[in-house]
């Protein structure tokens, strides 16, 4: 026989029929010469501990499921709105793939752990900066605060920045080597305690070609719709020297269940 200490859990039932879980530990007791003389046994009621563990697992599973539903809802809305605007199947497919890739890159780090409820802004924005600046962060300069944001804001914030970067690569500052983008993040505390703090970002392009507002603004409408859905605002200022986009998102009270 294997002479080692081991623990097993046994489900028992009381006289009233209620169940409880015992952790039973068994092990050998040897004399000075190493000869087995006894086996010891002890038991502990671990029912409450297991109940708490089950509740924690259930909460984690519920949170993960809620995140997945939110992501699917965003994807559904994005595909539906894109289909209304893109004239050809090829254009539709490319636009959807690009947007889903940006959305996936942002969520992979935050959905890996079901107990992670927040992510800092720099971690969230990092993949977008790297994706649109050819492995260099010099063209997009990030400044300001680095607050933790709720996972509920990951989708609208990521897609807004993705659309801005896409537009900048096609028509704006990121379409030239000399173009630059400054992205400033600020956390605005509401004067009234009842109101939640707001995250504000200002995207400003300089050094690119002269800017004119595009007639095809399907991306802008989609992001405006998603932003409004979480209680945010997004304003575009088409300056000749470069686009200035200002967005605000409430930090809390959005999507609370």
Topology:
Elements: E1 6-13, E2 19-30, E3 36-45, H1 47-85, H2 89-111, E4 118-120, H3 121-132, E5 140-144, E6 148-150, H4 154-170, E7 180-188, E8 198-206, H5 218-229, E9 233-239, E10 242-250
Parallel strand pairs: 5-7
Antiparallel strand pairs: 1-2, 2-3, 4-6, 7-8, 8-10, 9-10
Helix pairs in contact: 1-2, 1-5, 2-3, 2-4, 3-4, 4-5
Q: What coarse outline follows from CA principal-axis ratios?
A: elongated
Task: List segments where confidence is low: pLDDT < 50 over at least 5 consecutive residues.
Answer: 253-257
Q: What is the helical fraction, as a range of percent?
A: 40-55%
The tally of beta strands, per DSSP, is 10
Describe the structure.
- A hairpin with a 5-residue loop joins strand 2 (19-30) and strand 3 (36-45).
- Residues 253-257 have low confidence and may be disordered.
- This protein has helices at 47-85, 89-111, 121-132, 154-170, 218-229; strands at 6-13, 19-30, 36-45, 118-120, 140-144, 148-150, 180-188, 198-206, 233-239, 242-250.
- By secondary structure, it is of the alpha+beta class.
- 40% of the residues lie in helices and 29% in strands.
- The longest helix has 39 residues, at 47-85.
- It is elongated and about 90 Å long.
């Amino acid at each position: 026989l294997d002479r080692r200490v081991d623990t097993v859990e046994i489900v028992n039932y009381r006289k009233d029929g209620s169940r409880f879980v015992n952790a039973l530990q068994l092990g050998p007791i040897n004399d000075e010469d190493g000869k087995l003389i006894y086996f010891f046994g002890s038991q502990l009621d671990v029912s409450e501990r297991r109940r708490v563990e089950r509740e924690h697992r259930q909460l984690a599973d519920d949170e993960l499921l809620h995140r997945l539903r939110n992501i699917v809802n965003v994807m559904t809305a994005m595909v539906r709105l894109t289909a209304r605007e893109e004239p050809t199947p090829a254009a539709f497919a490319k636009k959807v793939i690009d947007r889903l890739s940006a959305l996936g890159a942002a969520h992979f780090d935050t959905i890996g752990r079901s107990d992670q409820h927040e992510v800092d802004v720099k971690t969230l924005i990092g993949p977008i900066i790297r994706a649109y600046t050819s492995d260099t962060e010099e063209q997009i300069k990030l400044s300001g605060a680095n607050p933790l944001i709720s996972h509920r804001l990951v989708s609208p914030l990521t897609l807004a920045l993705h659309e801005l970067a896409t537009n900048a690569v096609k028509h704006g500052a990121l379409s030239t080597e000399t173009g630059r983008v400054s992205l400033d993040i600020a956390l605005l505390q509401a004067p009234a305690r009842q109101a939640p703090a707001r995250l504000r970002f200002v995207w400003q392009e300089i050094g690119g070609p002269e800017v004119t507002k595009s007639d095809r603004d399907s991306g802008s409408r989609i992001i405006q719709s998603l932003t409004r859905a979480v209680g945010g605002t997004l304003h575009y200022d088409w300056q000749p020297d470069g686009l200035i986009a200002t967005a605000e998102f409430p930090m809390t009270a959005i999507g609370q269940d």
